[in-house]
Input
Amino acid sequence: MTQKECDPRCTGKCNKRKSLPVSTASKGCDPKCTGRCSKKNAGVSPLDSLPPAVIPPLITPLEIKELDNIGDNKIGPQSKLLQPGDVNVIIMDLDGIILDIEIVYQWVIEDLAGKYGISAEEVPHIIDLQDEETAKKLCTDYNLSVSPQDFMIEFRSTSIKHLANTPLMPGIEKLVDHLIENNIIIAVASTSNEEAFKLKTQKHTEFFKKFSHIVLGGSDPEVDQRKPSPKLYQVCGSRFPSNPDPKKILVLEDASEGVASAKGAQMNVVWFPNKYMKKENDPGALAVLDSIEAFNPEQFGLPPIKK
Output
C-alpha cells in the first residue's frame, strides 16, 4: 500500500501528502502528536507501530446548524432540492455517517474520567483535548497522577479498545435498506485504511455486504491524496458499474473537508456535521442536516420512505 508522510496516528487533516515507499512509523512525528503538527524525528512512541486512521482524532465541539436554516436555502418538509432522475447512485462516508464514532468518544471519555476521578460535570473538558498543551492543562487543573504525554497515549489506546464495538448510526440501516429496495446503488468512501476498517466494522460484516464497493483511501493505491482533494470521491465514483456522471452522484458527509472533496469531484453533497468536530465555516453543501434520521430521500429526488 502507498504510505503517506504522516504520523501513524494522523487524523488525515495535516498537509503531508508526499507518498513514501516505506512505513512512516520510523519517520517520527513527535510521539505526542495528534496528527496536526509538523514535528519530525522527536522520538518514537509505543503507538508508532499502529496503522494510520485506526486512532480517531481528538475532538472539539461544533455548533450544528438548524434543519430549517441551510445557508441561503430554507428547507421545509416538502422542499425539493433535487428532482427524480437527478441522482442515481449514492456514496456514504464511513465515520459519522454509517458508524457512530461519537458514542465511541463518549465511552472513552467516561472511562478516563472514572479512572482519574473526574466528575461527570467536568467530562466535557476532556473533549477539548487537542494537543500536548491542552492535555497539560487538563492534568494540572485536575491534579492527575499522569503526564500529559502518557494521558494522550492512554486516550488513544482506550479509543482503540472501544472502536471494536463501534455501533451503526441511528437510522442508517433503515435508510440503506430503503435505497437498496428501490434499486439505488450505494458505495462507501473512507479515509480509513483496511486494518482500521476491519477493526471498526467487525460487528457489522453482513451489513457492509449491501454496498456496491468500498474505497479505503488509507490503503487504496489509486487514492494518493487525502481530503479535501477530490481523489477519494473520484476513485469511488469511477468504480460504479454504471460509470455515472459525477453530477448524478449524491454524497453523505460529516466533515467539511469531505464536503470540499466531494464538491471538487463535481458531486452533490449533504453535510451532517458532528457536534464534536472542530468548529468550521459552512463548506457550501447542498443541505445541512443534524442527523441521518432527518434525511428525507424524497427531497433529493429519491423514492420516499414508506410510512
Notes: Residues 114 and 120 are 9 Å apart (CA to CA).
